[in-house]
Fold these 2 entries.
Entry 1:
Amino acid sequence: MKNAVIWGAGGFGQEVLPFLQIMGHYNIVGFIDTNPSLKGKIINGIPVLGDDSLLESVVKEDVLYVFIAVGNSSIREFLFKKILDMGLEPINIIHPSSVIVPNVSLGRGVVIYPNATINTNVRIGDSCLHRSRCGN
C-alpha cells in the first residue's frame, strides 16, 4: 500500500477518510491541519501529525500521496500547486459505488462521492468534487 496523508482534519477530511479506507490503495499515516491545537489528536484512529510545516518531513518518510481536504476551492487550488511543486501526487477518491464510463477524463485530486454516475465524454478538472444529487 502507498503511504498518504490527508491535508485537512476538519469535516471534509473526516468525510473522505472512510472512502480512502474502502478503496484500499493507501495507508493513511495521518492528517495535517493548520490548526496547531489538533496536533496529537486521534480522529477515527488516524493521528493529526501537526501543521503543514510538517509536510516536508513527512515526505522524507516515504509519503508521496496527499489528499487536500479543504473546502475552500481557492485555498485547495493553492495547496494543490504546492504539493505538485514538492513532487507529491494528489489522490483521486472514487467511491466504489460510483459508476464512471471508460471515456471520462479525470483530473488529479478529484473526489467522486458515493452513487454518482459520470457519463460519456465528461471532463472533470483537477481538484474537483462531484456528488450525486437525488430527490427533491
Entry 2:
Amino acid sequence: MDFYGIAASISGNGMVIGSSGDGASTGAAYFPSMSWIADLVEVCPVSPEVPFSVDAFPLRVSAAGSWNASSDSPWVTIDTASGTGNGEVGLTIAANSTTSPRAAKVTVEGAEHLITQAGAPVGTSAGPRISAPGKLKAGNKGKIKVSVASQLGINLTAKASGGAKSKVKGGNPYKVIVSKLKGKVTPVKLTATDSLGRTSRKTVKLKKR
C-alpha cells in the first residue's frame, strides 16, 4: 500500500482513503468502517429555561445515524422518541403547579439535555375568574364581552342552549357571538380553563327582544 492515505474524504459515516500504489504499481481506494460516527449526537440548546406554563417544546437533534430519546421525569413526555439523522424531538411539558422551579433531563443517545422550568408566579393559587354580565338583551344574534382574571394562559369555551350557536372570538377580553336565538331566554354557559387545568364557570342569559 504505497502512499496509503495520500488522499481521504469523509461524508456522513462513510470514508474513502486513497493510495497511489498497492504493490503492483496500480492505485487503490479503501473504505474503512466508521459505524462509530453514528454515535455522535448533539442537541441544541443544551440547557434551556422554559416558562412554567409551556405546553410544547421542540428539541433540535444533530446526528449522523439513528437515535432514541428518553425523559427521566413524568412532566416531560417524548412525542418523537426515535429518528435518523438531523431532526427534532417533540417534547410536551406539563405546567408547573408549584412556585418552585424544577429540572428534567432528556437523553438522546449519549447526549444529555437539561430542561429547567420556572415556578408559577406567586398569587396563582386561585383559579380563573370570569367577568361577564349575568343578563343581556339580544335580537337574533347576541354579543357577550367576557374578561378572565388570571396570570396564566386561558382557554375560554361557550355553549348556548335551545339550538343556538356560540363562538368565542379574540383574546382576553373575549367576544362571544351567539346566533340563531329562538326562545325568549337563551342561557350561555361560559367555561374558563387555565394552563394548570383549573376551571371556572358562569352562565349568561340572553333575553330576546
